[in-house]
Hints:
about 120 residues, two-stranded antiparallel sheet, 4 helices, about 20% strand
Amino acid sequence: MGSKYEWGINPFQDFLFDSVENGVDISDVNMEVDLYVGFSTILKYYKNNETYEKFLDYEIKKDDICFKVVAKNVLTALWLSGILPQNPEAVINNNKFVIGDREYKFNKKTKRLTYKLIDKK
């Protein structure tokens, strides 16, 4: 779920963008711990809960021109999209999340987060 980048909307994207802008190869295996600590710190700050980091699961791929951060579960996909659900356990258990008029689902095989518009009548 990519779109035009805007600073200050998504702390996870801000962290990654700032890292890349400062010359960090976020796909480097030696950076794994630093990135995980960065993401964990963001979660602790925004969610005020130390146990949510156990759901943080992703990989970073690199080709000649770009990096791709791939979430491995619905919760990480939502976090990387800037959505921080109130009840992470329910989201993990149901593999979906509803906010407003959108229902997000995660395809475990393709590692893609999609949404559909729902009618709330």
